[in-house]
Amino acid sequence: MRDSEVPGPRPHQIPALLRLAVSDPLRSMRQTVARYGDVVRLPIAPGRSIHLFCRPEHAEHVLVAQQQRYGKAFTYRPLREWIGLGLITSDGELWERQRRLIQPLFSHRRVLGLQPLMAEAVSRTLDSWDRLPDGSVLEATEAMSGLTIDIVGATLFGADLSGDKDRVYHAVESLQHAVTRVVKNPLTWVAPRLAYRTTPGYREWDHAKSVIDAVVARVIAARRARDRGDEGRDLLDALLDARYEDGSAIGDRQLRDEIVTFFMAGHETSANSLAWTLYLLSTAPAVRERLEEEVDTVLAGRVPGPEDLDKLVWTKAVLSESLRLYPPVWTVERDAEAEDEVGGVRVRPGSTVIVPPYLVHRHPAVWPNAEAFDPERFLPERAAGRHRYAYIPFGGGRRMCVGNAFALIEVVLALAMITQRYRLNLLPGFDPAAKFTVTMRPLHAMAMSLHRRG
Ligand code: HEM
Question: Which of 92, 108, 221, 416 has its CA 20 to 30 A from that of 433?
Fold first, then answer.
């Protein structure tokens, strides 16, 4: 197909669309897809375009089959200001070296070994809820964030971060806000550092960064000071012991960047997913009753162990469906480094390709009644035959989420344990609009009343 034949806005329409993309990214994407279809080209400069691909086969092409032609998009660069060159933001040889070192530490078997520590962290939160009067109101996004910060602290760093929850929650909010502001600055395309320094608000973000840095520095210093071998082996121990192929160990700067990355990537995504799930359950009483029945039957009042996870089939289906409708990482973006052709469309080097899980997950050709919350879609009999890349909450290919096993175990466990003891009811008037920053989180406070079960 010739460039001019690819559906998409004409050059004079682009500035208005980019302005909308900056103020309301999802609306601009949905409008674009509604008008031009699921393969769109936006010519933004001579020889340079933004491409939007929303079909599963195109997700597979870009993220997996032809992944060697693509690098992470320029849009991730502002993140380097805070997380440095950790696994999410690095590229090329540095990324490959780090991924080889880190991936084995997140294997399913290893993460399953962390399950008891995760359960203890969830119990701590639920015990704190037990001290509140029945019917107390909590803000679900913040509460889930506190829970997952606790889990990350305990399982990955062997640290008690319960006293840091509030500060970290607000610092992460501020950093998310910063990324969206910086990406709006046209300088991001050519000089990301300068873009950061010239975007109003950066002093506040520097402060947020120093909050995260202080927590991480404390965690690392405590571990270095400790007698090795006297306690359990969490991720930090494993990372300190791991060796590159040439026998060397990870350096201080790289260690800091990776730890900040795990810390940031490891709690906010899971927290959002749990908050959206609690919202969805609150709107679907029959789904919630079935969940309560499953949890009561499988666990029979016990704290779940690793052997219980596979039996929680409905719990998993509920979470999968929640991740379909509200994928915390709602857009995945790549810059083409080599020429490619996707679905008959030529992609030139330097162009940016957007594959949004949010839209792939709601593609009407793959997902009947796509907007509805229907966990049955994820029961084995209904899932059979579906395109493998129709569902990509963790991305795909070599840059797929390294923490996906961790995340799935964590959210299943947390939802099962919460359901075992509590029912959360959304207070009337909640507007489920989302805020699209690096992740997709509820825009408004999600007030829920807490009721002890049984
Ligand atoms: C529900 C929870 C989570 C979701 C939906 C999620 C989603 C994703 C997605 C879509 C990517 C790929 C981005 C891309 O291709 O550009 C990614 C990458 C990554 N995630 Fe997650 N994630 C979750 C939880 C976690 C957890 C718990 C950790 C760590 C403990 C983690 C660590 C990472 C890292 C380090 C990367 C970069 C991997 C690389 O590029 O090599 N994530 N995540």
Answer: 416
243 backbone dihedrals φ, ψ, rounded to 5°? -130, 140
Chain center to CA of 27: 20
Distance 265 CA to ligand 1 centre (A): 6
Q: Is 262 in the pocket of ligand 1 (CB under 6 A)?
A: yes
Q: What are 202's two structure tokens? A: 């950066």
Is residue 425 within a helix (H) or strand (E), and if so which, with residue range? strand 422-426
Q: What is the pLDDT of residues 371-395, one digit of tens each?
A: 999 999 999 889 888 999 999 999 9
Contacts of 60 (CB under 8 A, 6+ apart): 387, 388, 389, 396
Tens digit of each residue's pLDDT (9 = 90 or more) over 161-187:
778 877 877 887 787 777 777 777 777
How long, in residues, is the chain? 454
99 lines ligand 1 (CB under 6 A): yes
- For the chain, which residues make up each domain, given as ranges? 3-452
H runs (alpha helix) in 92-234? 92-102, 108-112, 115-130, 140-156, 165-184, 192-197, 202-225
Round to whole Å and give the CA distance between 46 and 378.
44
Rounded CA-CA distance 227/219 in Å is 14
Instruction: Say which CATH topology domain 3-452 has.
Output: Cytochrome p450 (1.10.630)
- Cα distances (Å, whole numbers) of residue 143 to 129, 158, 268, 272, 407: 10, 21, 11, 10, 17
